[in-house]
Design goal:
Blueprint (H helix, E strand, L loop, with lengths): L1 E7 L5 E3 L1 H11 L3 E7 L5 E7 L4 H13 L13 H13 L2 E7 L2 E2 L5 E7 L5 E10 L5
Antiparallel strand pairs: 1-8, 2-7, 3-5, 3-8, 4-7, 5-6
């Protein structure tokens, strides 16, 4: 099963995907397998992190920006310096997540959630969720 989900992001925003991804897994009926989340964007990323304190998302984006600041000396400047920095951030953070499914549920920790990280934006974005049963389910 492959599902395409649309979203609108905010500049340097963090968007929760967990509930939508869990719904896709549940709809698939897969009890044992893998869930792959993929974004086809070069200025965004995916992460699994704690959802307990919303300030953690601010800290995450702040630290990513501290490590890879927007600056004018990037060798490639496709659109803007922010776009160039977004490409580096996306490459380092990653655009795919693979999460095991066990007994019909994503194997996430108690306080873990799946998040879309916007490094440019705001934008209209999309992501894909692929649910695949393991070989023993036929």
């Amino acid at each position: 099963m492959l599902r395409n989900i649309k979203l609108t992001t905010q500049e340097r925003g963090v968007t929760a995907l967990t509930d939508d991804v869990k719904a896709v897994v549940e709809e698939s009926g897969v009890q044992e397998g893998l869930c792959v989340i993929c974004i086809p964007h070069t200025t965004a990323g995916l992460t699994i992190t704690s959802f307990w304190d919303p300030n953690g998302f601010l800290d995450l984006q702040d630290e990513i920006c501290r490590l890879i600041p927007t600056r004018i000396d990037f060798k490639h400047q496709h659109d803007t310096p922010q776009d160039a920095a977004g490409h580096v951030k996306s490459s380092l953070i990653g655009v795919n997540l693979t999460i095991p499914i066990h007994q019909g549920k994503l194997l996430l920790g108690h306080s873990q959630g799946i998040y879309f990280l916007e490094f440019d934006g705001p934008r209209k974005r999309e992501y894909f969720v692929k649910v695949q049963a393991d070989g023993s389910e036929g």
